[in-house]
Fold these 3 entries.
Entry 1:
Amino acid sequence: MSDLLYSEIETDLRAGVRGLLDDKAPWTSVLAGVEKDAPYDAELWRAVAGQLGCAGLPVPEDLGGAGATWRETAVVMEELGRSAAPVPFLTSAVVATAALLAAGERELLAELAAGERIAVLAVPFSTPPGGAAATVRAADEALTGEVTSVADGMAADVLLVPASGGLYAVDAADARRTAVTSLDMTRRLADVAFSGAPARRVAGDLDAVRAALLTGAAMLASEQLGLAERCLDDTVAYVKTRYQFGRPVGSYQGLKHRLADLWTSITQARAVARHAASCVAAGDGDAPIAVAVAQAHCSAVALKAAEECVQMHGGIGFTWEHPAHLYLKRAKADSIALGTADHHRAALAELVDLPPA
Amino acid sequence: MSTAPPDADELGRQVGEFLAAHDPSATEPLEFLRARFDAGLAWVHYPEGLGGLGAPRHLQPAVDRAFAEAGAPTNHPERNGIGLGMAAPTILAFGTEEQKRRFLRPLWTGEELWCQLFSEPGAGSDLAALATRAVRDGDAWTVDGQKVWTSMAHEARWAILVTRTDPGVPKHRGMTYFVCDMTAPGVEVRPLRQITGEAEFNEVFLTGVRIPDAHRLGEVGQGWQVSTTTLMNERVAIGGNAAPREGGMIGVVAALWRDRPELRTPGLHDALLRAWVETEAARLTGERLRQQLAAGRPGPEGSGAKLAFAKLNQEVSGLELEMLGEDGLRYDDWTMRRPTEVDFTRRSPGYRYLRAKGNSIEGGTSEILRNIIAERVLGLPGEIRVDKDVAWKDLPK
Ligand SMILES: Cc1cc2nc3c(=O)[nH]c(=O)nc-3n(C[C@H](O)[C@H](O)[C@H](O)COP(=O)(O)OP(=O)(O)OC[C@H]3O[C@@H](n4cnc5c(N)ncnc54)[C@H](O)[C@@H]3O)c2cc1C
């Protein structure tokens, strides 16, 4: 059985990341950021990736990383989820990094681990682990084709593109990128087109892509956990202080019971997210099942938490000036990202031998 | 003399030695169980001399497994859930040395079964409102009152009993806790037929029942604190089982899905997968809780376990009936019987569905558990209390 607790090192890491995010990414500045054109918060990214060294956690030391594992990375994801931080961590430090690790690509990996360059996998953000398909054609070291809804596409320096014949690296400047108006304003999408873009092959097939999406889905569960916790904490704090009919609204059983149910689901989300992170960290054979369970469960919990957060804040929860909408948009986008809960249940059906009707 | 509590290796060695000295196939079962208790291998976290060795609690499953693999006789825990899960930890926490020595051994071996005389017609969720009266009479107490929903009272040799000893103070303060002899004159057990057709629980009438003061658990007036220990253990006993993946109800339904392709529909498939995921989440949460306990960092996760268990057992047992279609319309047996155990797996799907409805009522309703999580874990304001400072005798009834 995998270790489902947090180690002392992880607890220290969490404190460091949370301290930094409280300082550099309070919700007021996350909210201010969504009004800007910049595709992500570059200063915050430098602090998280460079200063704290979080981008290289799962990368071995001889490749320029910290030599930790996806378990520690998952803790960073929880904290980034808590703040809905607008940084390309999931896309570059998790998915692209996992793809390069699987492909055995050293040089670029070291740059990503240091936070010096940002790479993203050029697939629609909704792609489930088993669903990577090449829509781009490769010929003579040049790519032609289009990919839509690429998360952090505008933030990328390098695009990792699944194409016919394998996985290719393309300098983002050689692609035509169009920013998309995105539901989640804290993790924006871009459409990407290649017309004969010079490309370098980093893998001969798409196995590395599937492995990267599986790892990404596991880490996303931790982001969803952190987001759900934040929504619950904020809501509990609010209902204790908001008075109606002469008593705190948190004294009404109609709200108390829903918050108790939410808390119960979040304790379960913590167990399944930790299990998924441990399984991908250890290369455990149970990883595909653990990830499918984690995504099916955590997507729903994060969404529920964000929806309850809006509802229990009443009118104020419906305003632009309150952070609840940032969490709701992130939660809904996350529930589609890397495969919907329904996709993951369908994958599970095959993995645990419960075939469809 | 104080020795360090044994670790996993040491326990493994002691189990091996015990099995070598007591061949399970050649030893009379009761004799075997008594010897196992005396060797401290019954519940390893209990103190020496009381069936344990003061070892960490999480080492118990490995010991049980080793005995099971050796084909050792069991103490039939399914027949004595209240004794093992609730009476024993309460006696351990509040009993005198003499009480512990008298009661724990035959409780564990299954020679003496227990029931719980808590609920009354006027006091269920509000247990502290109970009216059963105990009046001091020299070295003994005289008890009069009525209890209800008492599971397995028809089988039990002993009961844990809460009574009112001082009606003149607010309800939580005037209660006292006893061990009640179910064979004493004045104890009358009447079956109460339930939703499944059988009578697993009972009404119990107590008329002039004499209980020696030596059978009091805890101080006079301390009954609420003692009861709280019982109730906390009850929730863990109901919700905190360690089951393997696909253990319990979900395994039953998954097997049905695999064996009977003709029953499959897309909607049922979706419901089955959702339940599978939820069951796995509950299983991993229980596992995480056990890891926390083992690391000496108990978390509040246990409070949600019974809540989640009840919801799941009800959903999945309902799903099983729907999946069965025509067969789901049939029931196995409505005969009014008095079962000797609650057995989900050996009865019919219809029984499972109906019996699961009790999971969100017995041992504290789901509503009460939500109150507890909201108030004790999340720190939300308590319910409005109209009865807090009023003497019990003056409360509206
Ligand atoms: C199968 C089974 C076995 C049992 N075995 C035993 C046993 O062995 N020994 C024993 O002593 N008891 C036993 N019980 C009794 C059980 O503990 C009680 O039924 C339970 O505590 C509820 O009490 P009640 O039935 O009086 O319902 P009530 O307390 O009257 O509750 C009625 C409804 O009101 C709700 N409610 C009550 N108070 C609140 C509140 N403050 N906030 C919100 N909702 C509230 C309840 O949740 C419930 O939905 C058993 C019950 C069952 C079903």
Entry 2:
Amino acid sequence: MITLYDFELSGNCYKLRLLMSILKLRYDIVPVDFYPGRQHKADWFLRLNPFGQLPVLKDDDLVLSDSGAILAYLARKYDETGLWFPDDPAVTAEVLRWHAVADDITSTASAARLALGFFYDFDVPKAQAGAHRIFRLMDEHLWFGEREGRDWLCSPAHPTTADIACFPYVMLSEEGGIGRQDYPALRRWTDRVRRIPGFTVMSGIFPAGQALEIA
Amino acid sequence: MTLSVSDPTWYPIASSEDLPFRHVYAGQLLGRELAVWRADDGNVNVWENRCLHRGVRLSIGINEGGELKCQYHGWRYANRSAGCTYIPAHPADAPARRIQNRTYPVREAYGLIWSAANDEQAFRPFPGAEGHDWFALRPMPVNAAPEDVLAALAGLAPDDQPADLLPGLAVRFGGTYYFVQPVDACRAVIRGLLAEPPAEPVATLRHYNETLTKLRDRLERAARKKPAPEPLQPAFDKVSADLATMPDIAIPKGNTITVVVKRKWTSADGVIGFELAARTGHLPTFQPGAHIDIHLPNGMTRQYSITNGPGELMSYIIGVKAESASKGGSKVLVETVREGDLLSISEPRNNFPLRRDATRTVLIAGGIGITPLLSMARFLDKSSLPYELHYFTRAGETVAFRADLEALHGKVTFHTGVPRDEIGATIASALGQWSMAQHVYVCGPGPMLETVRETAAAQGWPEEAIHFEYFKNDKVIDNSSAFDVELARSAMTLHVPSGKTIMEVMRDAGLTVPSSCEQGACGTCLTTVIEGDVDHQDVYLNNSEKASNRCMMTCVSRAKSARLVLDI
Ligand code: FES
């Protein structure tokens, strides 16, 4: 039995809801009032995750934290196709590289969003500038990917957990005052992610239009 | 040079490759934010990046192929015209006429999308544009003043090949052209073009990308040391009053449009297709289920439904039944109008609005009644909404628009030659029991409409869920009564004798009264009743509307009381 300790407006929690929806997994939700309740710093939560961070996932008796680690766990354990976290040393390294980028996006784009929307005391201009630096690199990577026939962040011809890990806080960046106008390839990639079968929405993240079926 | 918000110069605002199908690109030119999207017919739209409803950015909208749908509230705007085709929750399920988003001129050429802040100048190719197979570089956004970016680009020219400055913030040396898109006073995008595709495209793109990245970093470092210029302040048109307050019924002004008969063909035995094209540009926005009046060479006016899908505004396609019994109307179209002829048509009008918030939509057509339903099916198709289309044809009759129907993704069922006594049962099973948010639309011969109405009612379908359109009123109009009408707003009392309609009497008194079918079928002459007992003889209003005694058609309705007070 899978249980997700979840805050509806958290992009990191949404990453897990998204992958579980794509993998068609059934799970229970325990809502954690991150804001304004600060329940992620409550004693009962710190006993689950001493780092005091959402999300936490319980699979029977196993307790896991860190969204990137949990994505890898879910994909390895439940994805029979083996596509979402491929068992290939070079691809694993690639995926983990982008999981690290996802953390950088969290500490910049998500920090700006927390400051503007949840009154956290972060340096907004610095967080915004940091997010723009990452988005520039991603846009370039994705733009050349399109030229080379690669639609996703990593080299396989299908999405991986890297795409899921990086997606939410790119989509929510406007809430942190970070426009995506200068990143057309990044915007096209978000359309592709939103067309993955099993895609699910959260507040601020909509589905994309249907792709055109070329008959 | 200083930038101006009203600068009419054409600048590139995107690469062709930036606009894949079903994507909305976010652009900006001289301070104006733009929503740029390619429709399924290849046309590129450049619009102000705001939904007219609440000002939400359209660049987060959904490109449905023929319409752009606002993510938040569901307003839709058509390809080419930017006319609004759907306002959710509007009383008539349909927008007032001519709600239109702000559009900007657009041209796709040389691998780039070009636009301008206004329509003052015609598009002109840049010097040396013709005769090459242009290859676009990766665009490079720069946070620096456009003039500074241009100067730095000129500095890239090798010593033996001095830069040639071109009009419109452009520079050239050798076979390389750079255009600077003035995004705002302190932001620009460098758009490079090579005159021929290189032997190794990706390596070449990487090489130029590296050069431009270095240039950008240098420019941004310098820009940070200078005071930032004031951002440009484009003025935006205020939201018009008729947007803020929705009129109940929009009475068309009676404008006519001249169209060319571009194509005339036999779609099925006895059904002739006509393609009516605009002489220049595109035709007005229409909604699914809308019709046009065609003014025929013999002076008659007839209504025909538009069969097109969303955003197809280059021509309207209609189907005309060539009944041998037809006296005049369609017969003239079929027999005397030829390809190349000019016809006068009205603006599209919609008495048959399609809801797009239904969970299940059933479309039932009989014979030529397929035309408005084909349009509806196309709209539902493009929006990926579930629907079922049932098309009844008599034995021996052939199916009109068959290829178009077969290209749809919804459930299309052809019922050919169903015996008369089985039609009811077929309709009953097609409809099923009603449940919340299901709607049925029917168009066909009178008896079929009645069957659908009765069957649906018997299976629990409420009146509001049954939608139909009559093109003809088959009833015999009884005009023997005589009574007075008081026109409350015009402060006039008129006597209506037997043998004359209210409409005729009002016209004799010098009033202009809008009408179209003049037989109580189209709804154009719908009027509010203030007092009196109406003798309805139309087929437009449904039973509860008739029973309410609050509205009537002045073209056929009369009074049962001695006096009627109308809101005219
Ligand atoms: S003019 Fe058509 S209903 Fe009266």
Entry 3:
Amino acid sequence: MVLKSVQGVREWLEAPVAEAKMAGRTRLDALRGAAARVTTPLLPDDYLHLINPLWSARELRGRIVSVRKETTDAVTLVIKPGWGFDFTFTPGQYIGIGVLVDGRWHWRSYSLTSPPNWTDPGSRSRRLISIAVKAMPEGFLSSHLVNGVPEGTVVRLAAPQGGFVLPEPPPAKVLFLTAGSGITPVMGMLRTMDRRAAARPGPGGWPDVVHVHSARTAEDVMFATELRDLHDRRPSFTAHLHLTGARGKFALTGLDELFPDWRERETWACGPLAMLDDIEKHWAAAGLSDHLHIERFEVERSAVGEGGTVTFARSGRSAEIDGATSLLQAGEDSGVQMPFGCRMGICQTCVVTLADGRVRDLRNGAEHQAGEKVQTCISAAAGDCTLEV
Amino acid sequence: MAITDIKAFAHLTAADIETLGQELDTIRRDVEQSLGERDAKYIRRTIRAQRTLEMAARATLFGSRNRWAWGAGVAMLSVAKIIENMELGHNISHGQWDWMNDPEIHSTSWEWDMTGPSAQWQRAHNYSHHMYTNVLGKDEDLGFGILRMTRDEQWRPLHLAQPVANLLLAATFEWGIALHDWSIEKQLSDVPRWQLMSEPNRAFGRKIARQVSKDFLIHPALTGPAWKSTLKANATANLVRNLWTYAVIFCGHFPDGAEKFTVDQLVDETRGEWYLRQMLGSANFSAGPVMAFMSGNLCYQIEHHLFPDIPSSRYPEISVRVRELCDKYDLPYTTGSLGKQYLLAFRTIHKLALPDRFLRRTADDAPETSSERKFAGITLPMLPNTEVWTESHWPVDPVTGERRGLRSALAEAKVALKEKARQEKEALREAKQALQDKARHEQQALRETRQALRDKAQEERRVLRRRALRERAIRRVRRRQRAN
Ligand code: FES
């Protein structure tokens, strides 16, 4: 009874922040809720983050504490997350990161390369996360991140997600197949395994892991020193490097020769789409599809197609549309309850979140990326996309 | 009857309206493409300044038992609330800053410091009002359901109370808006009237509870012994904000020159016609940078109605281009000082409190509403008649070579109507003169007749007298003879 009313009071106190919740629940929610009655309609966070941008649980934020060059076109960003970040993610997951460029926030997803609950010894045991970014030839944001995002920059974060993960405990025999920046989620897994092994010394700390990584040249290999070091330190870990510039594409048939026991291994693969398709076929042919985990990165491009398949995530429907049909129209035609008002782009009542893919504003051709909110009445699909409605 | 044919009223052909629409689209695109760091800085700075000001005001009110602290607190809080309401709440909820992708400065998440929930306001304002601007029976902002702002609306005895209703609305403007939005929200979302715990009702109730308890309970309580003066200060700041927002809004759509339209206009309305309706239906007032900022740049109401979702800070530069278009297409650009625009609205409110039989003009040529029929009964010397311009092309001024449209037509109509009125007056005077002359003549005749009668009577009297004298003389002679 008493407990129940305590719970009730607590809920009442937290009500204002529960409604506006964007980041995770924090221990301070009751206090924030109480203070919100003084600051309503704002949250106390809105005043606090005038002092420190990280003092807000309205949404996840972080500050880039260091930028480390990995290769000529790749960097590691070490980020200190603000309130509400869940550090107990699973290695292999990715996070969304929003970076401010020319007044606009741009969203992309990058794999976490740090183990969960990681504290960087160099930075006074604060909990940090890291991601690695490789500049894509026409990638607007990745180039920006690689070529000059200053330390101290405040970024927005989305909670870690993704099913390309290393289970706990890991399987006894593991094969990683990566290429290019596909190494990043695997790096998170390797570091996690290494840390666990350090915490639990003795045999069995490391499972039997083989990592085949392809890169064009030796200079292009991200985390090269770290891989070599792991290879040397951990006897049950084999890092196999394949340079495509000199030797061409890695032939999957070569696995039989190099690692004849590959069929016994639980496999995680991440890299260019063509490579993943090959792997999928190869594993299917061997009847091993169940033991294969694949991560496809969204390819960062600046120009995309016209039209595509629109998926309405919440209503579980989808439609095939051309580049001139509005998303609102497409949704209504396939029986989705779409919010709308003016249907001409002025009222903002039709705004929904673009969960995946890209759409184009029909009025000015501007493109919107996953993570942005779009007006469905004046936007059309620019390739396949998913709406949260 | 308000405007039923926007083409005929505007003196533009369909093709002209089309090109005008394209030119406005170009302005939109240009501005959108140039949005960047500078704009983002502007809004973030504004937010920071507003929050700082509000905090300073609330802190000052701890000492509100002191007269000076009270005054300073009220002033700062009023300004903070005005900025919050106009430049932030109004504009952000319009989606003007959505391009930044910042969830904190986004139309879907911003909540303003007013009684009505932002979401309800958005539906009523962004949708009903902005889409159907000044369309009778569609745009409920026309008089907010309580004032008669055009003589197209039938007079009812209730309207006699307009002067009082107007004052009341001004003082409690946020409540007026909130109730207005709430009823539209219920209407649009089709919830049964009797359903007490409907979502719109709950959202509204929650918002009221928070707003009222903040300004009238929690903040006063926090200042302890100064609670009474803090309470008064908060009430005053809300009042100031209400009066100011009311004035700004009323100057946007109710001064002379901001036209009203009928629903017929909405059938098959093209984008160009929509633009044109926005231009003709709104009015600006002139303001310097400070006043523009304090009005949320709604002194650029025309620009705001053309591009409701473009950052307000860009309206000044857009207005230059819109004015150029108005010159090019010879369209009116309604503006004036804040005082003048408000007085015009004020005059309409009071005039229309009266039944129509006390009003001189009709809904076709009244100062607050006119229609294409205004031009029907008159000949405009410089413009050919309607059929010519709607079918072929624009009339062009033979001397300057400039195209001629509504603005010239309005100016000429004004002259022509004045001339017509003068002629009528002249005719009236002549008729009166003639009548007067006739009366004078008749009087003259009357006088003459009377004179003649009088003369005759005199003559008769004289004859009588003479006869009497003679008879007396005869009698005297006879007496003398008898005596002899
Ligand atoms: S329906 Fe009004 S902006 Fe899309």
